[in-house]
Amino acid sequence: MSIQQSDVLYTAVATAENGRDGRVATDDGRLDVVVNPPKALGGNGAGTNPEQLFAAGYSACFQGALGVVARNENADISGSTVTAEVGIGKNDEGFGLIVKISAVIPNVDAAKAKELIEKAHQVCPYSKATAGNITVELAV
């Protein structure tokens, strides 16, 4: 379900120069990084890359969604971590992404951890944005 412009609470603004081989910065100066293709894609790997930035954002957002779900279920997720692995590769349309989200939730059993991450996947804005567009695998 989409939101309307009037419902927006915050807007992040980032500007890229020279695409995958340049620089990206936010308007508030909090993020200002060199981006280069990784060596696996023929680049020099000297800077970060869009896939790393996406993985960082997705893992943080998913961890937040996990927290919302855990509060609603009175589940203890203290000490938990969420890791996002973002792969890029060729597909029929040029290039595409694939994501694996792995969660470690030490204070719940494996079945409950699986239930929590499946529910978090339903509420995470990144998961909603990628639904039907890319493969996202969930793991505990």
In short:
With 140 residues, the chain is of the alpha+beta class. It has helices spanning 50-73, 110-123, 125-130, and strands spanning 14-17, 22-26, 32-35, 81-91, 94-104, 135-139. It has 2 domains: 5-41, N-terminal domain of TfIIb (Single Sheet), CATH 2.20.25; 50-139, GMP Synthetase, Chain A, domain 3 (2-Layer Sandwich).
Keywords:
140 residues; alpha+beta; N-terminal domain of TfIIb; GMP Synthetase, Chain A, domain 3; 2 domains; 3-stranded antiparallel beta sheet; 3-stranded mixed beta sheet; 3 helices; 6 strands; OsmC/Ohrsf; OHR
List the helices and strands and how they pair.
Elements: E1 14-17, E2 22-26, E3 32-35, H1 50-73, E4 81-91, E5 94-104, H2 110-123, H3 125-130, E6 135-139
Parallel strand pairs: 5-6
Antiparallel strand pairs: 1-2, 2-3, 4-5
Helix pairs in contact: 1-2
Structure, described:
With 140 residues, this protein is of the alpha+beta class. It folds into two domains: 37 residues, N-terminal domain of TfIIb; 90 residues, GMP Synthetase, Chain A, domain 3 (2-Layer Sandwich). Helices cover 31% and strands 29% of the residues. The chain contains three helices and six strands. A three-stranded antiparallel sheet has the order 1-2-3, with no helix packed on it. A three-stranded mixed sheet has the order 4-5-6, covered by helices on one side. The longest helix has 24 residues. The radius of gyration is 17 Å and the shape is globular. The two termini are 27 Å apart. The model has no long low-confidence stretch (mean pLDDT 96).
